[in-house]
Amino acid sequence: MANFKQYTKTNGTKAWEYTLSLGFDPASGKRVRSHKRGFQSKKEAQIAAGREESSVYDHGIKAGRKQSFQEVYDLFMVQYQKTVKSSTLRKALG
């Protein structure tokens, strides 16, 4: 569900913004929202919100999800193993 609002910029012109609730992140349980500003008309804001909502529906919320430390560490270790000798890897792992 999107909310649309017209606001006034500092230069005096008016523009539109939307706030879109995308549901809950399954990993963290927190609510995921999207907020965009700077549209010339309400129709432009509605089209952009619809596209984003459709994208999340098709691809899921995880597209914008941050990776955990463990996930980054695992990716690093895969690459690190290719660049060092086995004795160095054993020392690094403790």
Features:
single chain; alpha+beta; Double Stranded RNA Binding Domain; 3 helices; 94 residues
Number of DSSP helical runs: 3
The biggest sheet, with number of strands, parallel, antiparallel or mixed sense and barrel status, is: 3 strands, antiparallel
The appropriate CATH architecture of the domain at 2-66 is 2-Layer Sandwich
Secondary-structure-based class equals alpha+beta
Computed Rg: 21 Å
Q: Name the strands of the widest sheet in spatial order.
A: 1-2-3
Q: What is the mean predicted local confidence, pLDDT?
A: 87
End-to-end separation: 50 Å
Helix content: 40-55%
Give the SSE order as H and E letters. Answer: EEEHHH
Low-confidence stretches: none
Concise summary:
The protein is 41% helix and 29% strand.
Walk me through the structure.
The chain is an alpha+beta fold and 94 residues long. The chain has a domain at 2-66: Double Stranded RNA Binding Domain. It has helices at 42-59, 69-81, 86-93, and strands spanning 2-8, 14-24, 31-39. It has a three-stranded antiparallel beta sheet, covered by helices on one side.
Write the layout of secondary structure elements.
Elements: E1 2-8, E2 14-24, E3 31-39, H1 42-59, H2 69-81, H3 86-93
